[in-house]
Design goal:
By secondary structure, this protein is of the alpha+beta class. The protein has seven helices and six strands. Helix content is 47%, strand content 12%. Strands 1-2 form a two-stranded antiparallel ribbon. It has a two-stranded antiparallel sheet with strand order 3-4. A two-stranded antiparallel ribbon has the order 5-6. It is elongated.
Amino acid sequence: MTDLVPFVGEPLGLDLVNTRPATPEGRVDLIGDLEGLKAWLGLEADRLPAALQQAAETLSDSDLAPVHAVREHATTLMTCLTNAEKPPQAALDGLNAAMRASPTVGGLVWEEPSVAMRASRSGPPGNQLAACLAESVAELAGSPQAGPLHQCEADDCVMLFVQTNARRRWCSAARCGNRMRVARYYRRSKAG
């Protein structure tokens, strides 16, 4: 296990893509096992529907595969959008299949003092989670926010982010920005 903390704060679909950061030793999978997935879901809890938070508590190792598949398709799609390229049909089909495996269904419930409409999903917890994540990816890909997607400019970083202002160059000023500024200062002071 790594000491890396997942990068969160971007749209949920990008946070999912960013669970495979680069390190000097290579790519690390922060949700490669059930413990890592549950830890990441804990960081994202306020962004998940309450019913899905409860379903996440019952996840098992067999539920990892659909989540990993969504992440791979999301990575392909978001990388293509970042590079202004057409995504492969397989990525779109994979995300669509995940959403169809556990569609959102609306239903009426009694909430004192009136009736309310609530959305829910059915199926295994892994499929419910994968569908929710795929839906988040689809919402981002189809939104105006998808236009300013960028990859961190740090030499060894693969993180993607929504560029919220024209001057943003790094996934995190604290994580990569500071490291790159220190390296630039060191090169200048050594050369001068």
